[in-house]
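Internal tracking record. Fields below are filled automatically when a chain is submitted to the structure queue. Please do not edit lines marked as system-generated. If the sequence contains nonstandard residues, flag them in the REMARKS field before resubmitting.
Queue: standard
Priority: normal
Entity type: single polypeptide chain
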Amino acid sequence: MPLVESIRGLQLNRAHPLARDLFAFWPCCEGAGMFLGDISGNARHLQDVVGAPAWKPGKLGHVVQISTGTNEYFCREGDCPESTPLTMACWVMTTDDTVSQCALWAGDHASTNDYWALSLDGTDNDQVKAIARNIAMRYACASKPFMAHTWHHVAAVFVSSTQRHAYIDGGNRGTNTESREPDIVNTPAVALGELYDSTQALPLSGRIAMAGIWTRALSDGEIYQLYKEPSVMFERRPGLALLFVGAAEIVNLSGTSAAQATVSGVLEAVRCIAGQSGGSANVSGSLNFIGQVVLAGATDAISDLSAKMAVTFTGAWFTGSLQFYRNWLLGALFGGMTAEALRLGTVLSGGWFWMRHNGCTSLYRGPSMEQIDFANTLAVVEYDASGLSPPTYVEHDSGSTYFYVVRRFNEWGHHESTLCAAVRVAIGSTGELAEPQPNDIFTLAIEQADGNRVELLWFYCPLQQQSRPVRFNIYWDNETGQIGYENAIGRVNYSGPRFYTYRSDALEAGRYVFATRAEDAGGTEDESFATVQIDLATTSPSEIEILSAEAV
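SYSTEM-GENERATED OUTPUT FOLLOWS
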């Protein structure tokens, strides 16, 4: 899938099971600079960088690109996991499947023999390897080879000194049970993009993202979850306590304390519950509480629950808590078989599950770029479809203008939020598409330059343009008072939104009128009739002679 959602700025959900025993996690999504931030909370940032790694678009937003042969990598000295178990995992796309490369490394930087590594070996049948080295090397190989120019999720799990696993794309596990345990005694370090032992070999050639090290052995299921839902550790799902908020009084009981609390309110939820929960206790008094009763230690309580629950919309805070960056959830959850839920395939699950495992592409419309109706999905096609058309019931009135935006959903239901894929549709007075043309030029200025020449200055803004210009044509009146738009006297190539200048040949003294128009690749110009006039003088003022001066 193309770029859909960047996790830049998101925080790790430390309550998620995959965040347990996380040594370091580098999303590699900074997009600029020579720094890879660790968001595990352990501040193991990769600030030591060799070479000049670049930032490129990737499967999950910005990713870091490392080029082989130039000795590029990120590293950090000071600590690393010093014994098994541990796990290494990342997303990687190599551009070379003929050499051996290292994606993640942890070990003794001062030694050539003591480290763990997650590597891609193009010299050995394109195998993903989980390597443990102490004097000699022992490694497990994933059962499926990697491919160049293809994003893969790769992982190495070191269960113990006698068991290690290698994975690719969430599975295809390979196992090795030979005995080998690195001995970290001198300079513990971690690195991304190269074998950071004293040889500093096997540089990565390609792009890497979402790299992490755990000080425990992740299970097969956890490796698969990292592959299927790369951003799952960043979701924060609200608990029932957030969804069912009413008036409440908290009573703390200890020793022989006795208390009574009565809570009233409207109970609204997404499931129907009726029944009774109970227990016996040494609590004096009666406890009536509409909601959840927590029993711990020697504390007992009894609570009668009886309620009829219905799905209702409870406010903007509830909307936000259910979004999870999935704007299809509320429509199906509260509306059932809405048009959007039907098109996106979430009707059967009531919105709780994303059914389009390969993702999809959606179409939206509005009267301007600022008023696109993203709550109304006009059409949905498969993610690899070559075209997308609005439904036949959508009207296009004569003399009107519409803006269409295309956005993508990825394989786990995340929706991109860009406005990059947009098109302006103008309907002429006859009901046909109006011929597209570049925007008119504004801020056209003129001044006299050296050598009896004139210089034009203008700014071109591409916002909401109908077609992209390729050049600007310069016209003049040749002192006749009438501009000849049939023959341009000069051209300036378009190179993006900025100021442009044009300097004429030497001219005779007189009054001139100039104009500038933008032209697209099809030869269509903008229809502006804006002009600018200048009186060109070719003689200098007379010299001033100072006859005398005196103090007064």
